[in-house]
Specification:
Strand order of the largest sheet: 1-2-3-4-5-7-8-9-10-11
Number of domains: 1
Number of helices: 4
Strand content: over 45%
CATH class: Mainly Beta
Length: 337
């Protein structure tokens, strides 16, 4: 009789071990993903702040009094040091092998070609439509907006992705010195920029990942919505100095200093997994969630030029963020009257 009981116990342990192991692995993965979200926030938060205040507006230090105005379309990016390199540090994680399997399945593993880029460089693109208007007595306003709606994200050849970006800002400046023969124009201003980014990915689109190899190993079919959300508010001042050569070439130099507040939230909503052949999802002991706030003072140096052909202006702006040590460039077309 005791022999039969012993055999039953052994069979029960053997049958339930993969499930128990899988549930423990799920909790370890959840904790490790929270570490990933924490570290990623530290990497991208300050650089998203930099991208939000790059100068897409007028390079020249003056528009001219009313009715002088302009409208422009521009695109650019700031390039910061690489991201995700911390995922190579095994000591940061409870179950490094499982996290590696997850990153591999998500297309972010160390062997993926994209990591050759992200380990060294992280581009932060920006698109803007801008409108500027000269008022009176040297006062001018500049408005900028950049919106990437979900319909654009729908063109990405992958299922389960949601994304939208909104950037809106404005500047008011005063021309202190008007451009004259041999005298450059000088202006100073104040501005505000809001930038919000929302990104989501349905983990159900991923294939099941293995918890390891050997006795007790099983698979996890993950479920939940992985989300990233940032909201940045920037207040600051701008200084611009510009001149003109040969009637068509307008070079400028400038500097901006902005106080920036950014909230960052990343996690997985309703995180769960089917462990092995289970039909009822298991939930981890904690859900991965990272919430951080970044408060910085960002100094951005800029230079560039406008090439003016009648009412059409082709412009190139170069930027360097002193705080984040990130260079950037912007090109665009402006219609100016």
């Amino acid at each position: 009789m005791y022999t039969k009981r012993f055999i039953v116990i052994v069979l029960l342990v053997a049958l339930t071990a993969p499930v128990v192991f899988g549930q423990d692995a799920l909790s370890q993965l959840s904790k490790d993903l929270q570490t990933v979200f924490d570290e990623l926030g530290k990497e991208i938060g300050p650089n998203l702040q930099t991208a939000s205040v790059l100068n897409h507006g007028l390079g020249s230090a003056q528009i001219g009094n009313f009715p002088h105005m302009y409208f422009s379309l521009s695109a650019g990016a700031t390039v910061a040091p690489g991201i995700l390199k911390f995922t190579g540090d095994e000591e940061k994680f409870d179950n490094y092998a499982l996290l590696t399997n997850f990153l591999d399945e998500a297309g972010l593993g160390e062997d993926e070609s994209i990591r050759d880029i992200t380990n060294n460089y992280a581009p932060y693109p920006s698109l803007r439509a801008s409108f500027g208007l000269g008022l009176a007595d040297g006062w001018e306003i500049d408005l900028q907006a950049g919106i990437v709606p979900q319909i654009i994200a729908d063109q990405i050849p992958a299922d389960g992705i949601t994304a939208n970006i909104t950037t809106i800002g404005g500047r008011v400046r005063k021309v202190l010195v008007r451009q004259e023969q041999g005298v450059p124009a000088i202006s100073v201003g104040v501005g505000y920029v809001y930038s919000g980014i929302n990104f989501g990915y349905d983990l159900a689109e991923l294939e099941a990942i293995s918890t390891g190899s050997g006795t007790g190993s099983t698979t996890l079919k993950l479920n939940g919505e992985m989300t990233f959300e940032t909201n940045s508010h920037s207040f600051g001042t701008d200084l611009r100095v510009s001149t003109r050569f040969l009637r068509v070439f307008y070079p400028f130099i400038g500097a901006s200093g902005y106080f920036q507040n950014t909230t960052y939230k990343a996690g997985i909503d309703d995180f769960s997994a089917l462990v092995g052949s289970q039909t009822t999802p298991s939930k981890p002991s904690i859900e991965p969630l990272s919430e951080q706030t970044f408060n910085n003072f960002n100094v951005v140096l800029n230079t560039g030029f406008d090439l003016k052909l009648a009412i059409f202006n082709f412009f190139t702006h170069l930027n360097y963020a002193v705080t984040t040590r990130a260079p950037g460039a912007i090109v665009g077309l402006r219609i100016q009257i």
